């Protein structure tokens, strides 16, 4: 509820000396258009003066203005004060909108910089997962005008958003055009080994990728962003460009596959180059591929340039073609059990014949009782006559028909188990059939035999097959379109890989079990009249596979030409490779025109190579390198245990990532060692170039190790501790558990400096300083605290702690957080300087923009040998000051002492807050932060300030005032005694006329009892006046409100968290005016009353936790 202050002058009580004109200036009710602000325009100074007056000494003669509450609805309409930013560094415009309720009065002085949690959550609830162009979106988001359009939240689920796109990208050209040939050449066992190796590689990579992709929001750019934001710009740029080149060459491969299907299986007569001799067939085919491939590339580039949205809309159509084709294969396999299709293969001896230029597998036939030669005869003999000179092997061997697809139950699987590798132009033979000699290898290549068009060996087939398992990044590239990316990406990607792995494995086995070996090794289906081999198996017609695979390759090529330019544009816009910056520009709608031109040019290189079998290993290299670095990124982050490494996906391990990385490296060299070296050389050159030019982005995980002066990125932030220890009179450590807690919080990671201050000069305290340092190091060793020790000798403790806070550390190796113990005996201490030093330290850390952790009852904290059982770490998140309260429990739970503890987060809702919505928003915020915690919203209603609170404040102020009046130092006491002595001496001299009485004589007769009696007698009237004033005091209203906050908050915290192993709580800032420091200590004592282990937390003025990767 909005509240306005009405200042009412009240007689009596404490006041502020010299501030009366201010109190008179603010009596008027603020203007009605302030919307609940605590001061109207022009009275800001007066309001601040009134607040500062709380901590001034009380003067009984001055009228104190008491702030009463005039509860009116504020003028925002919804009763919720607005915050322009959910983060801690608000603009000056926010200061007029600061919170003005009673319940949070203890935090109100800093409300302009640290917003209430409800305000933060309200902002975060409107968060949208932005893809590329996020900056423009955010700039538009700042315009709070009425014309602002609502942003549609992404709605794609796991199935449509990840599973199907991955399926479409993984299944493709190699399955339809090369898998049967790979099975025939490598045999079922080695084919399964190839499939197993490649699928294991992608599955391990998918596990690593799922961990990285669920460690925050991944913008557009997919794997490039994941790697660059994890391993730094040098690796990111190098691998990003490798991924770009891989995607571009994938476009070449898909276009070549499209043309191969078109010219070999759909319209063979469309070929421009026709071979007149058999030995020229390969060259003619390659030239046709180059011409048609270039035309197809140009056409696809125009389609992508003009209407990329149509490409995305057609994606499901292309996917449907793939799925229908695969279903047709399985249907055909089932049909072979009952009725195998009729695709006979003509064999001459044990050699397979190309069945293009003859229709009957016969040497001669009888027509009208006359024996005549067939077309096959004419291919091997010099004439059609029966006595013509024929090829010797043709003359010695008979022709036989072999069923190309004998069926699943034929037992052909046993013949296809083993490999049949061979050199270029090796004849495809069936070893079971009889064969008589007489062949001339030099002449055989001119005969219509089916031969190997390339030299085959195991490693070559690995390189050719690997592109059929790529495409696993499709889900992470679409993270901006997903309803819940952290859930969808792992499930969708791993399911897609599992599905395709099952499809590939079953296809390998089924192809080997259904199709004759010679037909499997016939790459282009020449022995079955140029039919696609996999098409001969399908049902109801081979054309289902031919048309389906044609559209599948077309679609995949278009997708590559759409994705690759955007990836290049993302790299160029990052500015890490200066000569690529021109490719960051595009059309007005953001389409990457220049990047598309470069992509088409590189794609043309692959098309000029023209052979699908030669292009496949090239893109295998680039994809393998990309996957290698995804695994490396996951392994490095897991081993470094960076605080931001909190993946939602839990089923990963650094060993799996390392295994995936090793497998990628092995596959690179297995596929083609020279391609692998070239790819690594390219990546190394890009890496060194980016390093030489000096990448401007601060992404690297090693910012601290490199001693960079610049502050680390939010995602790399971890507490670098300065621990302020207290020593006893023997220079022993007073609170060793503070070091235990440091060990548990740091786990050996990052920087720890343990500091102490000795009072005196270094010349006189050198020995004590060395002893203190040795004792501290011994305690650090005993508590397993890894870090440095720093003992400072200073003229006073206050300056010593200030020097430590300012100067400890070196360069980038400086602390950002101060840890200290709560001064538990401050009330009993005769020296008020102890708690004043504590408050000044709080002020110093705030001024230095360092976080502060204050441990209360630190001696009851667990040791490193303890193992806390089932219990909770409770976080009381009252105001947002950078996210320290979220990060600390996560770091503690990494240590075995706290590992079993659950995290609970409580936040406070005011009367106007929707607590149900707050809980939902907080749960969503924690989900994006990848933190597992129970959430509870505690409602604190604007109750009237109780008599107990009023009385407690009054007692506190009376005690403070009494101490100020009665707590005299020893020198003041002696000075007062001397004054009383002098006064008495003078009076005795006047009465008795004894002028010769000297002070020494009087001093000799002045006893201690007489001193106290005389002092009491002389001060009696003054004391009576002071006591009377103390009992007539009325508490300062601002102190009453602060005490109200402390009492009410303490009630709810004790109620909910008394049994917690640890309670973390926002630490209110000290008063701006030092006159109220003791009241501040009282407020904190009341706030923490009844709690055992408490950690008070103050942020350092910056965000330390992020939802981004």
From TrEMBL:
<feature type="transmembrane region" description="Helical">
    <location>
        <begin position="652"/>
        <end position="676"/>
    </location>
</feature>
<keyword id="KW-0325">Glycoprotein</keyword>
<feature type="transmembrane region" description="Helical">
    <location>
        <begin position="618"/>
        <end position="640"/>
    </location>
</feature>
<feature type="domain" description="SLC12A transporter C-terminal">
    <location>
        <begin position="858"/>
        <end position="1109"/>
    </location>
</feature>
<dbReference type="Pfam" id="PF00324">
    <property type="entry name" value="AA_permease"/>
</dbReference>
<feature type="transmembrane region" description="Helical">
    <location>
        <begin position="540"/>
        <end position="558"/>
    </location>
</feature>
<feature type="domain" description="Amino acid permease/ SLC12A">
    <location>
        <begin position="451"/>
        <end position="700"/>
    </location>
</feature>
<feature type="transmembrane region" description="Helical">
    <location>
        <begin position="454"/>
        <end position="474"/>
    </location>
</feature>
<dbReference type="GO" id="GO:0015379">
    <property type="term" value="F:potassium:chloride symporter activity"/>
</dbReference>
<dbReference type="GO" id="GO:0006884">
    <property type="term" value="P:cell volume homeostasis"/>
</dbReference>
<dbReference type="GO" id="GO:1990573">
    <property type="term" value="P:potassium ion import across plasma membrane"/>
</dbReference>
<keyword id="KW-0630">Potassium</keyword>
<feature type="region of interest" description="Disordered">
    <location>
        <begin position="1"/>
        <end position="61"/>
    </location>
</feature>
<feature type="transmembrane region" description="Helical">
    <location>
        <begin position="315"/>
        <end position="338"/>
    </location>
</feature>
<dbReference type="InterPro" id="IPR004841">
    <property type="entry name" value="AA-permease/SLC12A_dom"/>
</dbReference>
<keyword id="KW-0472">Membrane</keyword>
<dbReference type="InterPro" id="IPR000076">
    <property type="entry name" value="KCL_cotranspt"/>
</dbReference>
<dbReference type="GO" id="GO:0005886">
    <property type="term" value="C:plasma membrane"/>
</dbReference>
<dbReference type="GO" id="GO:0055075">
    <property type="term" value="P:potassium ion homeostasis"/>
</dbReference>
<feature type="compositionally biased region" description="Low complexity">
    <location>
        <begin position="1"/>
        <end position="10"/>
    </location>
</feature>
<keyword id="KW-1003">Cell membrane</keyword>
<comment type="similarity">
    <text>Belongs to the SLC12A transporter family. K/Cl co-transporter subfamily.</text>
</comment>
<dbReference type="GO" id="GO:0045202">
    <property type="term" value="C:synapse"/>
</dbReference>
<feature type="transmembrane region" description="Helical">
    <location>
        <begin position="594"/>
        <end position="612"/>
    </location>
</feature>
<dbReference type="Pfam" id="PF03522">
    <property type="entry name" value="SLC12"/>
</dbReference>
<feature type="transmembrane region" description="Helical">
    <location>
        <begin position="191"/>
        <end position="214"/>
    </location>
</feature>
<protein>
    <submittedName>
        <fullName>Solute carrier family 12 member 7</fullName>
    </submittedName>
</protein>
<dbReference type="InterPro" id="IPR018491">
    <property type="entry name" value="SLC12_C"/>
</dbReference>
<keyword id="KW-0597">Phosphoprotein</keyword>
<feature type="transmembrane region" description="Helical">
    <location>
        <begin position="494"/>
        <end position="520"/>
    </location>
</feature>
<keyword id="KW-0813">Transport</keyword>
<feature type="transmembrane region" description="Helical">
    <location>
        <begin position="157"/>
        <end position="179"/>
    </location>
</feature>
<keyword id="KW-0406">Ion transport</keyword>
<feature type="transmembrane region" description="Helical">
    <location>
        <begin position="289"/>
        <end position="308"/>
    </location>
</feature>
<dbReference type="InterPro" id="IPR004842">
    <property type="entry name" value="SLC12A_fam"/>
</dbReference>
<keyword id="KW-0633">Potassium transport</keyword>
<feature type="region of interest" description="Disordered">
    <location>
        <begin position="73"/>
        <end position="95"/>
    </location>
</feature>
<keyword id="KW-1133">Transmembrane helix</keyword>
<dbReference type="GO" id="GO:0007268">
    <property type="term" value="P:chemical synaptic transmission"/>
</dbReference>
<keyword id="KW-0812">Transmembrane</keyword>
<feature type="domain" description="Amino acid permease/ SLC12A">
    <location>
        <begin position="162"/>
        <end position="338"/>
    </location>
</feature>
<keyword id="KW-0868">Chloride</keyword>
